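Input record (one chain):
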Amino acid sequence: MPPSRRSMIIGGVAAAAGVAAVGVGAVVIVPALGFTSAGIAAGSTAASMMYASALASGGGVAAGSTVAVLQSVGAAGAAASTYAAAGAAAGAAGCVGSEISSRL
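The corresponding structure, as predicted from the sequence alone:
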């Protein structure tokens, strides 16, 4: 059965919210944790995360780890593909949630 107009609207709103959330996270939350364009801020939550990550991996931060990804976002901001993926995931979740609620 094709999606209803209502679920498509809710999906679009959810997609926009997902994109906005990623944008806020990249611009506000990530630097507030201490992941900055100048590197990891001393004494920050990011520094604690980096310390724990380095201990867990034997002395270095593993490429692709949460700390490495957050530092990349802090240094350069989120890529356009990140916004697109977040929006698509939020939109899909919104459509599924709308369909489920309409059947209850």
